[in-house]
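We now fix the convention by which a protein and its fold are recorded. Here is one such record, which you should read through line by line:

>
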Amino acid sequence: MKIAFAAALAALAATAGAAQNGYERNRMDALSTQFLTAPEVPLKMISYGKDHWQEISFRPARNSATPAPVVIMIFGLGDLGYQTSWMIHRLHEEGFATASIGYRTDERFPLRGAIRDIASAVAYLRSQSKRREIDPNRLILLGSGAGAQIAGLLATDPAWLEAAGVPFASVRGMAALNGSGFDVGETVAKAPRHLRAGYRRLFGKEPADWAGLSPLDHLATPNAPGFLFLFEEQETRLRAESEGAAARFAAAGADARSEALPQWREDMLETYLLAPKGKVGESLLGFFRSAAAMPAGG
């Protein structure tokens, strides 16, 4: 009943919005077909388990003469990322393969279930390295939204990947886009009241359940060689989390930094991540190149 009620509300809002903004939507649809849609990149769906959620959206690098480094993309539940279609296209052109991982969640502790699935997916992808023409030892983690917490854990706590048979040293860096949850206790404590129940379903009801689930719990080495925390400039809460995480990692001796991105606008190509060369997100591409030990020119 709750789902049906929510769906009805969403449909009502969508109808009202369409009536009010029909002209603008038609204009935006036309703009999208003209120049806002990124060129398509060949896609291969790879199953790493029996459940339909256990799939990898894999896109190879373009004309790579050597096994390509892989950007492992982890989105939070319901998160579509920071408009990543152009980023995927640019990475393809620059010699990177990308792998966006679908995952299940454990009923009691959803976050732990997701991490286990993602670690299994990484292991399976590495086992296919020759077939996919990828370098199994040049993996870069990219987490968006709540997925940044998972990427952060995989980049700081070797136990998750090693339990799936993945050498921790194969992770060469971690980047976060509009990330959160780097310190679970702080996230729950500062969350608005209406969000706290959801966080407790995700992390567990008691502080003891949260043990080890914060990337900032694992500041001691070993860690991935580098960290980059990106956030949209208008997101005050995400700015605080990202800058705080970068500062704490740097204070512990890690190569870590944060950077603001302009607010994304649907009708402005120059705000799409890695769409216009030399503009939004070039520092992210530079981070990927450095992590993968690639020359600055690609």
